[in-house]
Amino acid sequence: MNEPDTLGASLARTGISRRSFLKFCTAMASLMALPPSAAYAMADALNRAQRQSVIWLSFQECTGCVESLTRSFDPTLEQLIFEMISLDYQETLQAASGEAAESAREQAMKASYGKYLLIVDGSIPTKDGGVYSTVAGVSNHDLLVEAARGAAAIVAVGTCSSFGGIPHANPNPTGAVSVADLIRDKPIMNVPGCPPIPSVIAGVLAYFVTYGKLPELDHLGRPKVFFADTIHDRCYRRPFYEQGKFAKTFDDEGARNGWCLYELGCKGPTTYNACATIKWNGGVSFPIESGHGCLGCSEPDFWDKGSFYKPLAVPLADNTPTITAAALGGAAVGTVAAVISRTHQTHIGEEK
């Protein structure tokens, strides 16, 4: 019986040079905030590694998370599927359909039992026996439990699978819940966002393939390397915020001059994500750079918090904003800096 193919051998057959491979690993190390020396360790580890079996299940979702991944620039979707992972089941991307597709999933689960990476996007309905979303007549709940049993780890991609997302929003007619609400005996990493940044999805997959484990997570199960800072922390409009220069409408002089969108409802100060640094479309832009405030989509219950165009803060006479108690769920009113500081300290404290 032939030995299982390694990633290094596969790359050699496709004509990818050691130099090109090192450039790829350097990009991955940089993306994950690893030291430069990690690129060589990553290259050696990937060279010996077998292609990682991945099973991707989609439940109550809009396919936006998969669409996001297909727009990944580094690594690209093609690099992930054909070089680093073996995507053995994904309803949207696979060629098979019907019984052939389900047979492929079952065979992959059996062949790589205990070793495959399970990716889930979409929330799981639990009301009325989970009848509101089924695949081949099997409820999402039962399919998740079955697939999770043989998984080495689970990655919940998108806010729906991470926190319930929009299906979970009031009045939650399907009883939608997150992956972590149902599965408690497996390592789970949440990669929230509506949708998540494609490079973030690709980056965490590359990390797992390289090291065989999930990266360090925060108190909400998110990879710290991408979710340690708020949008506000890294926003290029932050200097205008510090100067008290705020756009009053989306088409006034302040908006045209790139002033802070805080008073137009931007949720950047309470939202943890890498949008302001990694950006979208290969680093071209992100919502705030395109003139729209952050919606807070990578946070739990962001839809129910709503009021996307209602500011977190009300400016004082001296242009020092204050966050209202209602905006932060009953927190005491104080200056933005003080409340954000308390929020950040709480965030860090919950991680310990």
Structure description:
- With 352 residues, this protein is α/β, with parallel strands linked by helices.
- The protein folds into 2 domains: 177 residues, NADH:ubiquinone oxidoreductase-like, 20kDa subunit (Rossmann fold), CATH 3.40.50; 121 residues, Cytochrome-c3 hydrogenase, C-terminal domain (Cytochrome-c3 Hydrogenase, Chain A, domain 2), CATH 4.10.480.
- The protein is globular and about 60 Å long.
What keywords describe this structure?
alpha/beta; Rossmann fold; 352 residues; five-stranded parallel β-sheet; disordered C terminus
Number of helices: 16
- The main sheet orders its strands as 2-1-3-7-9
**Can you count the beta strands?**
12
Q: Low-confidence segments, ≥5 residues, pLDDT <50?
A: 315-320, 322-352
Give the radius of gyration: 22 Å
**CATH class placement of the largest domain:** Alpha Beta
* Fraction of helical residues: 25-40%
- The SSE string, one letter per element, is HHHEHHEHEEEEHEHEEHHHHHHHEEEH
Largest sheet: 5 strands, parallel
Query: Quick check: average pLDDT?
Result: 84
The tally of structural domains comes to 2
CATH architecture of the largest domain: 3-Layer(aba) Sandwich
What is the terminal separation in angstroms? 48 Å
